Amino acid sequence: MELFWLAVGTIVAGVFGCVAWFWGSNWVLDKIYPPRGDRAGDNIRRANQIRPWLFLGPAIVFLATYLVYPVLDSLWRSLFSSNGSAFVGADNYLWLLGDDKFRESMLNNMLWLLVVPALSTLFGLLAAQLTDRIKWGNIGKSLIFMPMAISFVGAGVIWKFIYEYRASGETQIGLLNWIVTRFGGEPQIWLTLPGWNNFFLMIVLVWIQTGFAMVILSAALRGIPEETIEAAILDGASPLQVFFKIKVPQIMGTIAVVWTTITIVVLKVFDIVFVMTNGQWGTQVLANLMYDWMFRGTPDYGRGSAIAIVLMILVTPIMVWNIWNARKEVR
Amino acid sequence: MEGMAGQKSSLAWVVNLSAFLLVLLWTIPTLGLFVSSFRDRDQISTSGWWQSFSGSEQTGFVRSGTVDDQVQQDGLYVIEGSALEGTQKLSAWGTGARQPAEFQPGETTEIEDGIQLTVAADGTYRMTSAQPFEMTRGERIFTTTISPPEFTTENYGRVLTAGGLGRAFMNTMTVTIPATVIPILIAAFAAYALAWMQFPGRALLTAAVVGLLVVPLQVALIPLLRLHNDLGIGKGYLGIWLAHTGFGLPLAVYLLRNYMVGLPREIIESARVDGATDFQIFRRIILPLSFPALASFAIFQFLWVWNDLLVATVFLGNTREQLVMTGLLRELMGSRGGEWEILATSAFISIAVPLLVFFAMQKYLVRGLLAGSVKGG
After folding, report:
1. What is the pTM assigned to this prediction?
2. For chain A, what are the domain ranges?
3. Does residue B78 sit in the same domain as residue B47?
4. Residues A281, A199: contact at Cβ < 8 Å?
5. Rounded Cα–Cα distance for residues B15 and B132 (Å)
């Protein structure tokens, strides 16, 4: 109950504080430069120069403190030893290059990068194309989209019921092993199978991200001018040809957006690995490796920060590409 | 597509079927959790959830009566009794461990010279012999029974009253609601400035917001935790609200700006001509018109904060009093992997709220996604 009031209090204080800031600062500004009297024109001009910054102020403070500063601070910290006492230059990065776990994480992250965006986009495209053509398509869309609302941890529990292993001969309570044994196969401990276990983790993310891809690609598919499709059909194109040669090229831009968005999610993937294998059995990824160095045992902020910076460097190309696109749009 | 006349019927069939399969494939995992949350521990650990609808098969054996139980009827020696308890129903039976389901109910078999055994569907057996029985140990009768599908809501009762889930639920709520409401306000003002006010550096700031959209959270953890400690905020609700506000802002500003830019210029210009201040324009015109975008972001932020594990783990701490639901689930998965029913039920409760929000507000969610992504393409 106490918690409840704390939360309510915060909302009220937060909302009230924000409103008070925006309203109050505007009021003060109008007092300093009143938009009337002899110098009204001058005052209005000056006030209008300052006003945008009042509106932007809190957002800029938050963005600077919670996103810009940490990047710079991590960069700086990555040049120091584990507790930050001694300057070690590029040592942390050199250590990374030689570390087996780091190489494994990089390799796995690359694998994730190849597989998850590709499969999610592919299934999303398929789902969009299929559900757009049927009567109960909207219900179908909702159901495929649903995993999007489920937390990675929840998804971990859900898929535990699919990957669970029981010794051969016992009743399998994991769906996958049950199917395998039904067809005469041997039950497997899926999450410890070297190499393959990565794919079983990836499937979870594909399951979550496909709905996102589907929603966006479905909108793009519906935006394709009808004439281009009709013309192709009149020319005798088969449905497959229409799809691959007429539709897909026209939504390439959207596919790229979907692909990059999922790529960002993949680069940051943490929870799934964290709760399902915790990076054991060769499934380590960068985000979880970083967590290990920062919060397990004796924290090593230098190395942890170095890994964080590697993550930052990996997302930078996409960041630049996004900005480039946005600027084209704003002009 | 309507243009596909000719191949319509067969193609429509294939499309329907494959769409159905795809939807099934995507729904089954969640369904499994849902069904499992209504089964007790024994059921979960002895059979798969997909078998729970058909009833579970159980095998066992009893010993028949012995010499002492025999009676004489019509010149035959008879031992009678029941191989089942209560109202169970027999589906098969047998007399040896090798073939415990050799016979159907009602069938008769000859065990050894002149001794006949029949077991009926209700479990009553009848052993007859022309000679008096001499055995002092009963004959083994193996039974296979089907118990009807059984579901229980007991798990929910248990989980909600004990085990810390109620507390975790409250904690998650406490984290989520302020962390959803506050960034909206801050972002709305900033988005208005970026969309409709003239000032130097506007394009640069907009670009910066787009760039900050993809910054990995992981980079921010340590520096911010230290900052919070230096400022005296430490680990606690205030810290996590601030953190989520900061992390959510780029998306909020970006979504809202994109939406506000699309509002009709004439309305805003004419309000300016009429002498409305920016503050009035924002409050009376922009804010009400931007409701769909505000709703979209609110849903995104709600889902994201509710489902977050990393930020909560780092900024809130891991004591029982501070654990959010994702944290609790993680703990359950690690330490009590055997308690499937607790895990399944807790997990389902934790995903129920986002699912409700999702299905109720799907329209806005989709709109927000489209505003955020299709523009670039």
Report:
1. 0.81
2. 2-77, 93-330
3. no
4. no
5. 71
Residues B104 and B245 in one domain: no
In chain B, residues with a C-beta closer than 8 Å to the C-beta of A274 are 309, 330
Residue that has been written with the tokens 């944290």 in this structure: B327
Give the closest of A52, A143, A291 to B23, CB-based. Answer: A143
- pLDDT tens for residues B101-133? 778 888 888 777 778 888 887 778 888 888 887
Give the angle subtended at the CA of A123 by the CAs of A118 and A129, to the nearest 5°: 130
Cα A160 from Cα A275, distance rounded (Å):
10
Contact partners, residue B222, CB within 8 Å, separation at least 6: A70, A73, A74, A77, A294, A301, A304, A305, A308
Containing structural domain, residue B38: 8-52
Q: Is B119 in a helix, a strand, or coil?
A: strand
- Give the CATH architecture of domain A93-330: Orthogonal Bundle (1.10)
ipTM: 0.85
Q: Does residue B157 form part of some domain?
A: no
**Token digits for A146?**
């649903």
Q: What confidence score (pLDDT) does residue B377 get?
A: 28
Nearest Cα of chain A lies from the Cα of B345 at a distance, in angstroms, of 10
What is the mean predicted confidence (pLDDT) over A37-64? 82
Q: Which of A31, A36, A53, A63 to mutate to test the interface with B (most CBs of B within 10 A)?
A: A63
What is the distance between the alpha carbons of residues B263 and A200, in angstroms, rounded to a whole number?
Answer: 45
